[in-house]
Amino acid sequence: MDTTLTPDAESGLRDEAKPSRRDYDALPASDPKSPVALFGTDEPLAMDSGLTLAPFQIAYQTAGTLNAERSNAVLICHALTGDQHFAHTHPVTKKPGWWETLVGPGKPIDTDRYFVICSNVIGSCMGSTGPASLDPATGRPYGLGFPLVTIRDMVRAQAMLLDRLGIRDLFLCIGGSMGGMQVLQWASLFPERVFAAMPIATGARHSAQNIAFHEVGRQAIMADPAWADGRYLEEGTRPAKGLGVARMGAHITYLSEPALHRKFGRRLQNRAAPTFSFNADFQIESYLRYQGLSFVERFDANAYLYLTRAMDYFDLAEDHGGVLAEAFRGSKTRFCVISFTSDWLFPTADSRAIVHALNAVAAPVAFVEVESDKGHDAFLLDEPALFSAARGFIDAAARARGL
Amino acid sequence: MDTTLTPDAESGLRDEAKPSRRDYDALPASDPKSPVALFGTDEPLAMDSGLTLAPFQIAYQTAGTLNAERSNAVLICHALTGDQHFAHTHPVTKKPGWWETLVGPGKPIDTDRYFVICSNVIGSCMGSTGPASLDPATGRPYGLGFPLVTIRDMVRAQAMLLDRLGIRDLFLCIGGSMGGMQVLQWASLFPERVFAAMPIATGARHSAQNIAFHEVGRQAIMADPAWADGRYLEEGTRPAKGLGVARMGAHITYLSEPALHRKFGRRLQNRAAPTFSFNADFQIESYLRYQGLSFVERFDANAYLYLTRAMDYFDLAEDHGGVLAEAFRGSKTRFCVISFTSDWLFPTADSRAIVHALNAVAAPVAFVEVESDKGHDAFLLDEPALFSAARGFIDAAARARGL
């Protein structure tokens, strides 16, 4: 996959740059509780597809204080269905921030010491511009008219946000799963801007099996007549059933067989005997149905299509002549790569491939395989071995940086 | 799960037994190319749900010749979406029989020596009575009015077929996946009728993760408006999209990550570069879409619901006080249990649990874990180690039986 912008496309971008029309005021901010950085038509986002996005906006959250040297910034990159609410109560779900286990005063990512930023990725639906946003050219939601987004596009947008915030260097770039892909892309695209990088439960490319699971989810959404070829917002419908099925299937891949066995086994739901019907007899069925239902309340179906596609397209080696090590050649970033033994979505072999590539270019890298039966989602859960590895790596990096 | 028929239900069955009304002539035979055994209202099928099925029919195929002693009969039990066309061209798909690799003249299951039978399971859609059949009480297709089917119900129906064919004992009962569940159920329910048993790529119970995958598939079907609460045959619609999505998701679980990587990797479909769209850019996407499309041409959506449910309900230990060994106590059957290293749907641990249970009751058992990267579907594919294990076991059993 060659997703490098051609010189023509780049110069095309520059030709199109016009003074901001401030029409981005019309874009929806689905999360009014987050600060939003607005980028006008004079600051377009150049995308791997060769298209540009302008105007656009990035919703983000911060915690802690930027020091005078501006040297203590941490960028957290969220996963597929994550968002910027990493360390405070979510405004929609009212649940705790998704990484409060790792981030906060005295935590491994210590908000008493670091200035922590997390922005909603481009293409998502939590306040940053995505397919549910209004297309200023038509006055209607983009839908499938939104340009395809890549992991690199997400990272470029984040870099523009950091520029806006006056942050040149990141002390640390960290994230799990799709967030980990962004971390790898950051370290490869802007090595001089990343002091330390911590990709967790991720891979330098999406495997055939992972693409396959994503494709099933997309087909489930597109099979829902309420999806209406992506124009459901205009039609006033919602592909809730299709999106729910997609989420149910994906959710299985985030867990592990041992965890499912421990948590649910073959236990029946509120019943002493099976009903000999298609009711949710088993607890696992009831749990999955709930996961599907609660997801559709908080996520946009088209955004799900776009973000799964971004992960599928990710192949850092392909962008460097098929040699992953080349993605990191000359890097001075220090890495800590983390995997979990029961993660079958991004198995340890994927992390080892990253480590081997870093070794090949003599980049400083630590690797920790955390023993856990919680599957891929372990990076979001209470995993003391993850916390201690993160604390050790981050504290050492802080000392090296004089923080 | 207690699925034992209560005495009341059993006597109720007997009360309901009436002379055959021959109204089964009205039932559809979706496969007119197979012989069909008809069972009238005087021969009802007693089901685990407590309900009875009458009249009903079983479509089957045979190969080879029954010897004078009637001692050389082999019953092949097919998998979830399999059928009775095990060793001859399929009348619908025109593909070779699904087990021609293993069955035929000179093959491990040698049709020059054995009389081989394979019947379409009750609840399926290839000629045996299932939810797509006409309910004689209403004159309309059963749909969800068809009683829930269990693995034990399938085996009971097969036993009635063997009775009809004048076959008391099976020399061998063999099958993979759901077919392996039937083999285990045969050996447990009718131990005196099974001389040798070969359960392949299966388990004595369906795991939480497997139930979860099945539930996603069912929800995909039920989410399709064309499913029409199961009445699509009456409505003249077909839930092709929902069934296609279900099949796509299930198909992933039949393969393995290494096999998908070897077969497809991240190769693009007929294109030099990604299209930056939701087209099937990757070969794996195109392959999966084809799997979904071709499946809906040959399979009934409600039958898929019923058969997945039958697998979910299967838990042989639960039927014996939670102790799997009790399912086989006193058995004189000789077993050969086969698993495949890359099968993550029914991993080797599931087969080991069967072997341990058989060991606990001192049943003769051989166990072979076949090294293969082909995943669950390996039992259907060209696996020389499977063939040699099967040949060795079957030849030895034949000698022991004096065949």
Short descriptors:
disordered N terminus; 15% strand; two-stranded antiparallel ribbon; 403 residues; Rossmann fold; homodimer; alpha/beta; eight-stranded mixed β-sheet; Rna Polymerase Sigma Factor, Chain: A
Q: Low-confidence spans of chain A: pLDDT under 50, at least 5 residues?
A: 1-29
Order of helices and strands of chain A: HEEEEEEEEEEHEHEHHHHHHEHEH
Describe the oligomeric state of these chains in a short phrase: homodimer
Largest beta sheet of chain A, briefly?
8 strands, mixed
Q: How are strands sequenced across the largest beta sheet of chain A?
A: 1-4-8-5-11-12-13-14
Overall geometric form of chain A: globular
Structural class of chain A: alpha/beta
CATH fold group of the largest domain in chain A: Rossmann fold
Number of domains of chain A: 2
Please state roughly what percent of the residues of chain A sit in beta strands, choosing from under 5%, 5-15%, 15-25%, 25-35%, 35-45% or over 45%.
Answer: 15-25%
CATH architecture of the largest domain in chain A: 3-Layer(aba) Sandwich
Radius of gyration of chain A, Cα only, in angstroms? Answer: 21 Å
**Average predicted local confidence, pLDDT of chain A:** 92
What gap, in angstroms, lies between the N and C termini of chain A? 40 Å
